Amino acid sequence: GPEWLIGAPGAVPSACGPEGLVRVQGELWAAYCRYGADPGDEVRVVSRDGLVLTVERERAEAPA
Fold this sequence. Notes:
This protein is an all-beta fold. It contains no helices and five strands.
């Protein structure tokens, strides 16, 4: 079923603020990113509502 998308990584091809597109496993999906995301940001799918994915930006790691 569609549950396989939850937790999947994705990339933002154009600004998602808060609605836009993301590329997940080679396919473009409509997306909602509550806090927005910029082109090139990496995101993770947190939920799905029909054909719209809710995503969150991946957190950058702190410098060592």
